[in-house]
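Pilot study result, target chain (285 residues):
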Amino acid sequence: MKIYRETYIRKAEIAQLVLLHQLYAQSGSHELIFQGGTALRWCYGGSRFSEDLDFVTPLSGDIIRTKLNRALKGIENTMIPHFGMGVLAMTDKTARSESLKLFLNFHPERSREKISVKLEFERLAADAWPKQQKHILSALPPVAYMIASGEFRIPRPHVVLVAETPAEIISDKIRSLLERRYLKGRDLYDVWHLCTVLKTSVDMDTVKKKFDLYRAPFVLRRSMDFFTAPTGEDRKTIIEALERDLSRFLPPEALSVSRADQYDVFLDAVRRLFLDLKDKGLQFT
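Predicted structure:
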């Protein structure tokens, strides 16, 4: 099992900001909509580490690859002041026609350990468009802190990110919890953050549209009862997923508090979310 490593995480987060800065400096980047746990981390005060940069977009894989190829030299040049001389490589791990999955790996000359960031782009259905907000990179509180501390060193990091709204992100989390083959504890943690910290209200129109928003069809693999009235085995599965994920994404001292309470705050947040959805009439045939 991978564990939380503060030193590596700080490097990975700096690399994420370098990529976001260079990617959103490209023309047409407003059609790349930032989503998921890393969008929560940078744009909406998320407190856990998130390893992937996730986007939704109407753009084809070829257009996205072209944008990234144009950005590679700038990314490499910006990595050097942060990590020393090194080489940047891009690896394509795409497995589905409806999405694009790439790894950008920077190999510093004076380190055995590469700095890796995974980027995933999910294709939107025709004429589908999630609600979004614009954010100035340098004005985001965690980014401003890293600029002030000298950790993130880029002249004029004022590009504009386009991110899903919290209501859209929680709708994505609802879809993921019902659809993923293997439950991910990070989704439960993010639901807790959205509901408890951000006080995000569920918008039923947004939730219902989410099931048809992407080119990849929605497949129901888990009922809402799994979360609202879990059996003993269901609860064990949920706790195992939380333990597996959060040991990588939370500092040990924070994890120990949640572990002592058997992750009750996260289970309760998800239970209340799906009870609310049931009360508002969400059903699957």
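One observation from the pilot: The mean pLDDT is 94. A full batch analysis is planned for the follow-on phase.
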